[in-house]
């Protein structure tokens, strides 16, 4: 139970050091810290509101102070009745209590100024000669009484909200405080009588940078400590002079809640009894120059909904129902399994839906279309929705825009129950400069490199992480583990890997410093990525990591212990986005068919390097925004030809070695670019819309592609094995035709042939293996069901002893215009 003291007249506050600034008000959860009227609102009254004047002025220039703090009441105990005195009962009032030796001016000033490293050494209970010294800092209180079994003793006031006395006791009892605010009082345990709630093992692992469950050690954690329920607050701020907890429970005035430093670890800690779920909080940090800043918790597991930015005390109560999925997801290596991904921007897929409402729609839609996985664009908390989540401020907190962390767990659980894996975009490359978040967190560069030129990300106006700092690397590695273990994420797609790997990324000559070997490689980032991948794969069976890496870095998907020709071990990713294939193939299909023969090599070049890494073929959000046009709108010709090109391209993509990824809206040939403000144009699928069959036909094709793909091992079983692919004819540039064979592990074949010309090619001969007597058409993107012209090969295609394409046998086919065919043994 908690109770809230009253609003009170404004009192002076402690001033920052000379010349320093105080920006604490600007960081208070996006709201002004205005005083509340006596009695508060109904919610406050229900928790025990009381009114009364403040007592004890604080030295220093006056400034507006927020309303009086809410004290944490002792569990199971009610506040004293209104109007009761905080003094002791007759015969015991002040009995045996002697005044304490006053604090030194230095300690007093540092304590009240939020710059003391050891407030527990001054506050709480301490044995002294002749008894037990108890000192309490309760701003705005009129009096403080110590309560214990057989004890009721009033502490003399020392001014500035300090109360202290020496009691005739030899040991420290389990005492509580009765804090009098005039018309009412609150009974509560003393936060400063508790030992540190963070263990030595945690501190040791933190110091080594090996705390793989960092979220268990830092941040706000609800717990029972020394028999009392409350919340332990911990934060890493090694450059701070002092740190205080501020929040709704003290009206964002942290004077009474300074934290203690836990030595060389750089961690600050405070256990607050009675504080529980839903409380808003931040950390008020006194910088090295004496100024103050109020910061959100870097380890917060829940946040306010933007634009508000306070951290929220949270604990998960979700009970998972996906045990079968979790046990089976790693049975087959991902590069030897079907892997077809639907990329989703959750806030705009169906704008306005919560996580739980999405759980009622998204799994069914994705399952119906046959995708094996969904990929969420970043769900970590971010202040600006227009960043799509790629500028993260809350690395451990799902965005509150659509609900609570447990609501997100509910959505992921629903997808797993539908048999759909969940991938998540993860952004360890950079973070924004918001002055309430990570940038210069404790007054100096902390998460970012010390050198401002090295810290600044040249493309996005953000800051890069200091991958060479042990604690920063630990923060990120543990974050990857956190999403996989706490949210059952099945894969992490790591954003902007290239910008991490190269010291000269987007930098001009002279604008970067070479590594110790004189090279351009960021050795610290390489080591971080290797550690992250090794840790995730060790701890989280069945999880896959995927690199968005846009260069030819050697060994992105090679094991970390296998050293390549460049002298580096592999980065250890499971898969890599094939940005080269994406760029080349889209460039080809955007050309008019009459010009395509001059760009034929752009479609065949990918097979030169197709087995250098384990690839995903991505048509992602990046390709359908910012003037790049939607996929169907990239295609030349009239509306029929655009859709035909679109369908043929998808058929080619699904048959090409590598896994597939398609961004939402492209599955039904949305013509407009994606915009996060409104999402896909679902109205195109409204039966009342005249052109609805055109869009429904493309979606029906995507469903059939995924269905055929799932039951055809030749299309995925040997994606990373050159023996799984053979050109039939990769040089038919005059015809705009591409034909090749795919083979399963047992040798079972599939023929894919794509005609990127708008003419029908009759009796088009293809050289085929002589071991197959006849072939049948199993997919044709020109089928009338999909909006095509309906030119098909309805009967078996008999293998003939006619040499062609370097083979001794061949078949004769009809190739529809702008279409892809798949043929299987009949």
From TrEMBL:
Its EC number is 2.4.1.18. Gene3D superfamilies: Glycosidases, Golgi alpha-mannosidase II, Immunoglobulins. InterPro entries: A-amylase/branching_C, Branching_enzy, GH, GH13_cat_dom, GlgB, GlgB_N, GlgB_N_E_set_prok, Glyco_hydro_13_N. SUPFAM superfamilies: (Trans)glycosidases, E set domains, Glycosyl hydrolase domain. Keywords: Carbohydrate metabolism, Glycogen biosynthesis, Glycogen metabolism, Glycosyltransferase, Transferase. Pathway: Glycan biosynthesis; glycogen biosynthesis. Residues 791-805 have a biased composition (Polar residues). GO terms for molecular function: 1,4-alpha-glucan branching enzyme activity; cation binding; hydrolase activity, hydrolyzing O-glycosyl compounds. Catalyzes the formation of the alpha-1,6-glucosidic linkages in glycogen by scission of a 1,4-alpha-linked oligosaccharide from growing alpha-1,4-glucan chains and the subsequent attachment of the oligosaccharide to the alpha-1,6 position. Monomer. This is 1,4-alpha-glucan branching enzyme GlgB. It comes from Streptomyces caniferus.
């Amino acid at each position: 139970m908690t109770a809230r003291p009253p609003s009170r007249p404004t009192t002076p506050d402690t001033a920052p050091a000379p010349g320093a600034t105080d920006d604490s008000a600007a960081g208070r959860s996006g709201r002004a810290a205005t005083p509340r009227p006596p009695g508060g609102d109904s919610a406050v009254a229900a928790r025990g509101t009381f009114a009364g004047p403040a007592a004890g002025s604080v030295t220093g220039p006056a400034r507006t102070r927020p309303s009086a703090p809410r004290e944490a009441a002792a569990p199971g105990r009610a506040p004293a009745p209104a109007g009761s005195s905080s003094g002791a009962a007759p015969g015991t009032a002040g009995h045996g209590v002697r005044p304490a030796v006053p604090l030194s001016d230095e300690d007093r000033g540092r304590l009240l100024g939020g710059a003391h490293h050891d407030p527990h050494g001054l506050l709480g209970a301490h044995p002294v000669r002749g008894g037990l010294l108890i000192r309490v800092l309760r701003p705005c209180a009129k009096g403080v009484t110590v309560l214990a079994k057989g004890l009721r003793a009033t502490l003399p006031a020392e001014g500035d909200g300090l109360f202290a006395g020496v009691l005739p006791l030899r040991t420290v009892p389990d005492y509580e405080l009765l804090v009098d605010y005039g018309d009412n009082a609150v009974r509560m345990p003393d936060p400063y009588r508790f030992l540190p709630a963070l263990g030595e093992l945690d501190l040791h692992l933190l110091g080594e940078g090996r705390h793989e469950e960092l979220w268990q050690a830092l941040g706000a954690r609800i717990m029972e400590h020394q028999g009392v329920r409350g919340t332990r607050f911990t934060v890493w701020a090694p450059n701070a002079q002092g740190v205080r907890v501020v929040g709704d429970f003290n009206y964002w005035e942290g004077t009474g809640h300074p934290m203690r430093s836990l030595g060389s670890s750089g961690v600050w800690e405070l256990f607050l009894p009675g504080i529980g779920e839903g409380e808003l909080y931040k950390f008020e940090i006194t910088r090295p120059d004496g100024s103050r800043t109020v910061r959100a918790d870097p380890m917060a597991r829940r946040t306010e909904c933007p634009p508000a930015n306070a951290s929220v005390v949270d604990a998960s109560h979700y009970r998972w129902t996906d045990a079968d999925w979790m046990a089976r997801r790693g049975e087959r290596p991902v590069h030897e399994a079907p892997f077809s991904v639907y990329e989703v921007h959750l806030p705009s897929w169906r704008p306005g839906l919560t996580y739980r409402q999405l759980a009622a729609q998204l799994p069914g839609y994705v399952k119906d279309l046959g995708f094996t996985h969904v990929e969420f664009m970043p769900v970590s908390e971010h202040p600006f929705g227009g960043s799509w989540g790629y500028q993260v401020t809350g690395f451990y907190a799902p965005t509150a825009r659509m609900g609570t962390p447990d609501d997100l767990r509910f959505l992921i659980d629903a997808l797993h129950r539908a048999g759909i894996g969940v991938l998540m975009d993860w952004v360890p490359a950079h973070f924004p400069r918001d002055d309430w978040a990570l940038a210069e967190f404790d007054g100096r560069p902390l998460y970012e490199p010390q050198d401002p030129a090295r810290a600044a990300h040249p493309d996005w106006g953000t800051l890069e992480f200091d991958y060479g700092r042990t604690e920063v690397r630990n923060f990120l590695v543990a974050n990857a583990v956190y999403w996989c273990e706490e949210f059952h994420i099945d894969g992490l797609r790591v954003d902007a890997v290239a910008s991490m790997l190269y010291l000269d990324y987007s930098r001009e000559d002279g604008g970067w410093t070479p590594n110790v070997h004189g090279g351009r490689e960021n050795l610290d980032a390489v080591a971080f990525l290797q550690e992250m991948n090794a840790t995730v794969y060790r701890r989280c069976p069945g999880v896959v990591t995927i690199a968005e890496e846009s260069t030819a870095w050697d060994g992105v998907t090679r094991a970390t212990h296998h050293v390549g020709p460049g002298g580096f071990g592999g980065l250890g990713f499971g898969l890599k986005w094939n940005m080269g294939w994406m760029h080349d193939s889209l460039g080809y299909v955007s050309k008019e068919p009459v010009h395509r023969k001059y760009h034929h090599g752009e479609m065949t070049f990918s097979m030169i390097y197709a087995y250098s890494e384990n690839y995903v073929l991505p048509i992602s959000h990046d390709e359908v925004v910012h003037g790049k046009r939607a996929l169907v709108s990239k295609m030349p010709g009239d509306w029929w030809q655009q859709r035909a090109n679109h369908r043929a391209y998808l058929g080619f993509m699904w048959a090409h070695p590598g896994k597939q990824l398609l961004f939402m809206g492209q599955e039904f040939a949305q013509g407009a670019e994606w915009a996060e403000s409104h999402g896909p144009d679902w109205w195109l699928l409204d039966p009342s819309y005249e052109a609805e069959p055109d869009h429904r036909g493309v979606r029906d094709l995507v469903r059939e592609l995924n269905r055929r793909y799932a039951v055809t091992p030749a299309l995925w079983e040997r994606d990373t094995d050159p023996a799984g692919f053979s050109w039939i004819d990769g040089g038919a540039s005059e015809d705009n035709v591409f034909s090749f064979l795919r083979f399963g592990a047992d040798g079972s074949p599939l023929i894919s042939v794509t005609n990127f010309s708008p003419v029908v090619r009759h009796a088009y001969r293809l050289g085929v293996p002589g071991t197959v007597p006849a072939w049948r058409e199993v997919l044709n993107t020109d089928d009338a069901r999909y909006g095509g012209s309906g030119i098909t090969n309805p009967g078996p295609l008999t293998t003939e002893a006619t040499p062609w394409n370097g083979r001794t046998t061949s078949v004769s086919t009809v190739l529809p215009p702008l279409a892809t065919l798949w043929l299987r043994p009949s």
